[in-house]
Structures are given as structure tokens and as C-alpha cells.
Amino acid sequence: KRCEEEARADVIVVVYRLPVIAWKSDGKWVFRWDDDALYLTFGGLRQAMEGKLTLKCVGILNTDEEIREDEKLEITRILEGEFHCSPVFLPQEMRDKFYQGFCKGILWPVFHMFQDATLEIGKTVEFDFDLWDVYNQVNEMFSEVVCSIYNPGDLIWVHDYHLLVLPGKLRDRAPLAGAKIGFFLHIPWPSSETYRSLPVRGEILRGVLSSTLVGFHLFDYARHFLSACRRLLSLDHSAHRGMLGVEYMGRHVLIRVSHIGIDPDRFARALKDDVVLKRSREMRLQYHGRWILGGVDDLDELKGISLKLLAFEELLKTSWIFREKLMLIQVAIPKKSRVSETTRDEISSLVDRINSTYGMNGRVPVVYIEQDITFSERVALYSIIDTLFLTPLRDGLNLVPYEYIISASEGKGQLVLSEFTGCSKALSAAIRVNPWDISDIASQIDKAFAMSREEITARHTSDSSYVSKHPTSTWAESFLSDLHQASEVTGKLVNLGYFLPSVRSVDLFGFERLNLETLRSSYTGSDKRLLLLDYDGTLTSNSESTRMSFAWAVPGTETMNSLQALASDERNTIFIVSGRTTEVLSKAFESISSIGLIAEHGLQIRYPGECWGPPPTDVDYSWLELAKEIMLRYCERTDGSYIEEKKSGIVWHLGDADPEFGNWQAKDLHGHLCNVLAGYEASVISGRGWLQVRSSMVSKGIITETILQRMSDGEPDFVFCVGDDQTDEDMFKCFGSWSSEKVFTCTVGVKPSNAKYYVRTNLDVSHALETLALGKRNSTESVTFS
């Protein structure tokens, strides 16, 4: 019976406004899909569910026409029959109070943490409980319609801040008491300090917690939500298999962090449309020879358009080149509920000032368009913009950068984004700025202006690939899959609690800072030397662990010069012992063939002056697909993470994920993998910004022993072994019983280690190599790290 119900199951999507546009023509109602409803991108939802589940939708009708009482039945019949949409009919006065009054007047500023305590006339704002009553009434009306079309086994997916208490009202209805209800918030959830200013804070929280699965775009928003649950309702949260959860009223409410995308195919089709191509050609001719910054924002004080103009003005002051070449096309879309005359006047004044001061030869530096623009006009504008420039003070995800990345022409596609834009965390190649720091914004635009075409292409390719791989259809399908399986989550949860657990103090006895004079003295007094050097974080910087910085990490010029000099000495044997692939290492050290290279923690080795040896053939990789499947689930639930497949194993990178959430997920994934792979010849290891599963038959320790055995004419009388993470500890252990006078095992960073010495950063490693390469100095000179 259960299987039959699931086979018949529908998905009921509940939104404030139906994705259908309605109008009257010759006295008859006409309807069509509204695929430009960007906050939901409903077209992507339909695409994800096509051929799998029937999609129904509940919401108010998108029309400005007055709907008579005798028309409602016929409208409902047409919408349900042709569009699978069930309308909620709100009287105009109730609709205005609900949307303009409570949603935009109270919830919007609070949830964006931009609340004013007083009105413009100076009177203190008083919370309007009448508007709260209207908000509840509207949510109740939505619940009635949902209940009328619900069948056992249906999934219900509620969207956005207009319907925060709807899950609770649905749960109160007997037929829906056991329904699977998902809720996704498309705007930020505020900090608990701001959220507590709402007198109805508890009621809203309880409404959301009546859901089975609650979704947020970013972990920041989920963290604020969990903090509110703890502070206001004393509810702790927990983590299990990559999902957060809250125990509420005997139910386990799952918390999911995943952001919506766009429909890339829609934009790819639009770029070939004749209307778009014609408009694009016109603008290219009109602005020929100009370097174009572009912005598409709502006309809203939260979008920071005034700060953008001030930064642009600052840039024009610095150089005649910018005054000659640079221009800004700013589209400001008026929103009836959010347009402040003060904001509008300030923007107009700044535009006039900049154009009157820096306009020349009939050309103005700022083209300001205050109107809504069509989809075709938007795509055409994206195609000619060199750099998208957005400076919101507080924002949700904001899909405009996604649209631009897909629509940008070849050689364009740079992003200068406010760090308060949600998508700036997902688009790792974007230049992030603080919208309040005018001078820094100007310098960052200068940096973008001077960027090489090669780097622009590489950055655009990276972000374009990300956007293409994360369309709305994937987001929707993944969320609904979690909602469908939500009740199957069982087992003991790892309670994270609200405070961090106490940290055991570590006594670093016998652990000292490396002294360059001691190191040099031992080096110059030896004849057979072995240098084992890690790559990432040791020869390269680990100050950032983002995908872009990881991809481009190479040793500095000084480090390479020192390695070249050391490799030219026949008494030295040097190996780079890395987790990187053979291709990466070969390219990085192609100019120094006399250095040995070890790839993937010992899977393959290239002895100095030789070719790469083959990987071992007797290694068991039966665990690889299982580990990959688990990592993919965590990847799906951890924005900014990705998987790197290697010959010896698989790596989960989380450098672009939210730091706190990524750390939680990494700990949970580590425990999960250890449990599942306990019977396999596989090791689970963690590092800064990554977690790897590799064969237990491959390690830096094993390959170090192999190297030592190959040194047939006796062991070295000087060893310098340096690394920065857990994988290097296996190397350090190999020299645990050796004479301390000739062995210098050294970790990068002050932390518990099997190494005897430490340095603070990779720059200290570079100084050490330079010291050895230079050879003897005055014996009276004492050199230590600063």
C-alpha cells in the first residue's frame, strides 16, 4: 500500500504568488506561465520533476485585475486543469496589509537586519499586531487550499518568508499531521539578536519547526536560525550524515544548506535569439572602446547603489585612463514596496555629479536606467559587460551574478561582488569587497582592469563551470529527495550542543623552533644529505584554501632558485613528497630534472634524472566507489565543497565552504567513512581544507622507507624533512630513532607533531632552503626566524 501511495505521490509547491500571469482580453481571462519568477525559478522545478512526479502549485494569482466572486470557480477550474495550479483568492485590502504591511514593512527589514527603530517623522515604531493577525489569516487561507488538494504520500514544499507559519497551520490539520513538509527560505535569516526584536518571534520559529526539512541558502543563515532555536526555545542541534537537525515536540527537524541556481540552458538559448543579438550589437557600437562595469539591482537602499557610485567616482579621480575608458551602466529596477524617495534622490544626485564632472566629448561615465527591463534586454546587457559590479549592504543569494557568468562574452566575465552577497561565497573566482570601504573597492576595480586575459578566462571558466553544474533543477531534485527520505533517518545523533566542548591542553615538551644556524652547521658538516619536502603548505602558501588558490599554488621564485642551487650539489638528494598528481608536479618542477618527485603520497615516484615509475598493481581499491558515493552526498549538502579523484584515492575539498559548517561536515564525514570503511585497506586522513580516503598501502612513511633502502651506500648524515599536515607525520616517524644531531624533522605551524622542530609559515621554509643554498656564513652570525 505504501509503495502504491508513493507511486501516486504529487509535490505541492506553495508560493506566495503563482508562476502564472493572468489578464483579461475581451472580457475573458487569459493565462500563461511566468518563467521569469526568479526567486523560485519555477521553470527549473518543472524541469526537475518532469516524468518523475506531478507538480502542483498553490499561491495567489499574479494579476492586477479585479477578480469577481462569480469568476473564482471558473478561474480555479482552468488553472487546476491546465496548469496544475490552485489559487488562493485574497481581498485587495487584505493583500495590501499582508504584503506591503507585514511582509515588506516588518519581516523584510528585520530579516535583512536593517530595521529602523523610528519612523521618518521621528516617532518610535510600534509593532502592529493587526498586521500580524492578517499575516496569520492569509497563512490559514493557504493551508485550507493545500489541505483540499492533498493526498496521502504527497510532498509539500513551502517557500519563503511570506509563509513562515504555514507549516504549523498545516500540521494542525488532521489529514496533514504526518505529512512531509519542506520549507525553504530565500532571504537571510537574521542574527538571534535582531530576530529577538520581533514580538512574535516564538510563533514564527514554531511555525518553521513544524516542517520536516528546513532549507537555507547559506550556512550563515542556518547558524542564525539554530542560534534562535537555542536562545528562544532552548533547543539544541545535532549533526548526522551531513545533515543538521533540531529535536522539536518529539520530531526530528532536518536543516539543509543548499542554494538555488538558474536555468543555464535558458540563457544559452537567449544568447542566440535575434532580439538579443540585435540589442547587443547596438550597445557594442554605442559604447565601442569603453571598458564597461555593469550593475542590475533593485532600487533599494539595501543594494548599496550609492556606495557603488561613490567608489566609481573615487576611481575616476585617480587616473585619466579611467576617465577616458571606464564607464558604468547601472540598471535600478523600482519596487513599489521598497522605493525610498530619499534613496532615489541620493542616487540621482550622485549620477548627475559624476557625469557633470567627468563627462567629456558628449560621453558620460554613468548610464543610469531606472526602470524594469525585459529578459532579452537583461541578457543583451550581460553580454557586453566586462565586469559585473554589485555592492549590496545585505543580500540573499542574488542570482544576477549567476546569470551574468553564463551570458558573458568571451574575454569578459569578471565579478566584483560585495562580501555580503550570498553567492560571493559560491563563486570562488569573484573579487570580494566590503561595500563600505570605498577606497578598497576602487583599488579592486583597478586590479580587475589590469588583469591579464589569461587570468580573466581562467576565473570565468571556473565560475561558469560551477554555475552550469548547479542548475535549479539539480537543487530542486536534491531537496525533494531529502524530503522524501527524511522519515528514514534513524540512529544515534552526535549532539553538537550550543557551546564548544572543552579542549584538552597539549604539552609540547621537546618541541622547539628551528634555528637556522644549527641547521646550517649540520648541513655544511655533512657529505650525504637527504631533503624530503612537502609541497602544499610547505613550499607553497596555505594562507587560503579556496579552490582557485589550490589550483594555482606554485612555489615562489626564491624557493625555486634555492631548490635549483641545492639540486646542483651532488651531495644532495632532494625529493618533493606530495599528495598532488604526477601531472601537477611534473609541470611545477619541469625546470629541475635533478629533483625527485613523489606523487599522491607515495603512489608513484620519479627518481632524480629518471622517468615516472608505474603505480603498484597489488593495491586493493574495492572501497573507492563506496567512499565516492558517501563523499558525493556530503558534497551535495555542503556548498563550496568538491571532489578530486586521484589514482590512489579520493579527496573532499572544503576550502570554499563556510568555515564553521565545513568543519562540522568534515568531522561528521570523517567518522562516517571510518565506520563504513573499517574492514577495508583504506585510510581516512584530514588536512587543512580537505579530507582524503586513500589506500593503507600508500603513505609518505612507506615511500620514505623505500627511498632510504635504495640509498645502498649507507644512510645519509644529514636529513631535512619538512611538512605541514597529518600526512607528513608518517615521514617524521621514520626518523624517530635516528640521531637528533643530523636529523631535522620540522612541521609548519605550531601544533602537536612527531617532528622535533617547527617553523611558523612556508616563508620560513623558504628562508631555511635559502640558508642551505647559500652555504657557509660567518660562524658568529646567529640566525633564527623572526
Notes on the protein architecture:
The protein is of the alpha/beta class and 786 residues long. The chain is built from 28 helices and 29 strands. Strands 1, 2, 3, 4, 5, 6, 7, 8, 9, 10 and 17 form an 11-stranded mixed sheet that branches. Strands 18-29-28-27-19-20-21-22 form an 8-stranded mixed sheet, with helices on both faces. A hairpin with a 3-residue loop joins β23 (642-645) and β24 (649-653). α2 crosses α19 (472-485), α12 (305-318) crosses α17 (438-450) and α22 runs parallel beside α28. The longest helix has 21 residues, at 129-149. The model is unreliable at 1-7, 488-509 and 776-786 (pLDDT under 50).
Spatial gap, N to C terminus: 73 Å
Helix count equals: 28
| Beta content | 15-25%
Number of strands: 29
Cα-atom Rg, whole angstroms? 30 Å
Described by the principal axes of the CA atoms, the overall outline is globular
Query: Structural class given helices, strands, pairing?
Result: alpha/beta
Low-confidence stretches: 1-7, 488-509, 776-786
* Largest sheet data: 11 strands, mixed
